[in-house]
Write a structure and sequence with these properties.
- This protein has one domain: Histone deacetylase domain (Arginase, Chain A, 3-Layer(aba) Sandwich), CATH 3.40.800.
- The protein is built from 13 helices and eleven strands.
- Strand 8, helix 9 and strand 9 form a beta-alpha-beta unit.
- Helix 1 crosses helix 10.
- The chain starts with a strand and ends with a helix.
- The C terminus is likely disordered.
- One of its GO terms (biological process) is heterochromatin formation.
Length: 438
């Protein structure tokens, strides 16, 4: 059976690096918590079922180390995450107050394996996702790297926030900045990408663009007038949305804004955070995007043929999250997935009763009137046009770790590195191989 067809206009093969660690499904925030890492495994089961491994290179990235995390986060905060456990959390009251503040408890609980979870989510974004893009190990034209376990955009330098502990996005962008003058960050999560914006608020080397619900809604930031400071003035763009935005309305603002960003900023690489809580029916979201409306953003950004790092993010109706990310994995790989979910796959029962690869919009009212969207779009485009062209940056050599130096050697790829220094390809499950042959 054919599970996918080439995308229209797809004329050349594009190399895509996809990162997945099977250990991610074993982490639990706790009973009743909205964030469920199992959604990553559900997505991966669809990726395998649709035979997307034939279109991509699948890797198990080396988890990020404490040293790598401290390229953005404070040493003390990373050490706290490394040491704290559910049984010892009460002995860290001072640190808990400093680094969790009002977020301790329900939002950012201390759970078993917390640091390992952070290391896995960061490793695919930073150590190998962005690194492979920068060193041309993934396709330099069009696609790039995918890490659905990443995209945790709320974490701050010394603070956990909004279900996020380590900001893998910032770490990935810092890696990209070693090789690229300008990096564009785009966020389509229902929540404002506050942690990433804050990290790069005063620089022109990163432009952040966030489309999000605004108002009495977490995290309460991302007003259209928040545009950066100092050297970073007008390099932070925010498009606040109201409840119920539809595919058509979203496209009417997303594409013109991103078109103008590409023209005015001319980024060398792009990071796209694909938070799926902007989908219709999300448990914590209030927008009304369909799966295809959400995926249109991936398709549109991909069309600019720039090195592209695609990340996950929010998303709390997990059957819809996994469907959408699998579909977007297909888009990144240059194929359109068929609507019938293949069988047998793990988690198949979660996709009933229709067993279709689809997330449909609801009949909710769209509170984003054309007049409102046009007024916000006009402000954002005016700020962009005031930039006066893309900034120029003099790149300097950055000291590398020994492993980095080896990766830069064109005659010594990862497969030639010592086992403990190379990213590990995911072996296809033997039982899946037997099913595939039937």
């Amino acid at each position: 059976m054919t599970y996918s067809t080439p995308l229209e206009g797809e004329h050349h093969k594009k190399k895509v690096c996809y990162f997945y660690d099977p250990d991610v499904k074993g982490f639990h925030y706790g009973p009743g918590h909205a964030m469920k890492p199992m959604r990553i495994a559900m997505c991966h089961s669809l990726v395998l079922g649709y035979k997307l491994y034939q279109k991509m290179e699948i890797f198990r990235a080396k988890p990020a180390t404490k040293r790598e995390m401290t390229q953005f986060h404070s040493d003390a905060y990373v050490e706290f995450l490394n040491r704290v456990t559910p049984s010892t959390v009460n002995s860290f009251m001072k640190e808990q107050y400093m680094w969790y503040s009002d977020n301790v408890g329900d939002d950012c609980p201390v759970f078993d394996g917390l640091f390992d979870y952070c290391a896995i989510s960061s490793g695919g974004s930073m150590g190998k996702g962005a690194a492979r893009l920068s060193r041309n190990k993934c396709d330099i034209v069009g696609s790039g790297a995918i890490n659905w376990a990443g995209g945790l955009h709320h974490a701050k330098k010394s603070e956990a926030n909004g279900f996020c502990y380590i900001n893998d996005i910032v770490l990935g962008i810092l890696e990209l900045l070693r090789y690229h003058q300008r990096v564009l960050y785009i966020d389509i999560d229902v929540h404002h990408g506050d942690g990433v914006e804050e990290a790069f608020y005063t620089t022109d080397r990163v432009m952040t663009v966030s489309f999000h619900k605004f108002g009495e809604f977490f995290p309460g930031t991302g007003e259209v007038r928040d545009t950066g400071f100092g050297k970073g003035k007008n390099y932070s763009l925010n498009f606040p949305l109201r409840d119920g935005i539809t595919d058509e309305s979203y496209k009417s603002v997303f594409e013109p804004v991103i078109n103008e960003v590409m023209a005015c900023y001319s980024p060398d690489a792009i990071v796209l955070q694909c938070g799926a809580d902007s989908l219709s029916g999300d448990k914590l979201g209030s927008l009304n995007l369909s799966m295809r409306g959400h995926a249109n953003c991936v398709k549109f950004v991909r069309s600019f043929n720039k090195p592209l790092l695609i990340l996950g993010g929010g998303g709390y109706t997990i059957r819809n999250v996994s469907r959408t990310w699998a579909y977007e994995t297909g888009i990144a790989a240059g194929v359109e997935l068929q609507p019938e979910i293949p069988t047998p796959i793990d988690y198949y029962e979660y996709f009933g009763p229709d067993y279709q690869l689809d997330v449909k919009p609801s009949n909710a009212d769209d509170m984003n009137t054309p007049g409102y969207l046009d007024s916000i779009k006009r402000i954002v485009l005016t700020n962009l046009r005031n930039l006066g062209g893309p900034p120029s940056v003099q790149l300097t050599d950055i000291p590398r770790h020994p492993v980095d130096i080896q990766m830069d050697d064109p005659n010594r790829d990862e497969d030639m590195l010592p086992l403990d220094e190379r990213p590990r390809r995911i072996p296809i499950d033997p039982s899946f191989n037997s099913r595939r042959q039937n």
